[in-house]
Amino acid sequence: WIGLGKAGGDVEGDAGGQARTGEQMRIVGAEGGGGMVCVVVQHDDEDAIHAALSQLVPYAEEHGVVLLIESSGIFSSTSRLTGIMDRYASDYLGALWDVHNVYRVGGESPATTIKNLGAYVKHVHMRDSDDDGSFNLVGEGTLPIDEVVRALSSIDYDGFVSLEWDPAWMADLT
Question: pTM value?
Answer without folding.
Answer: 0.84
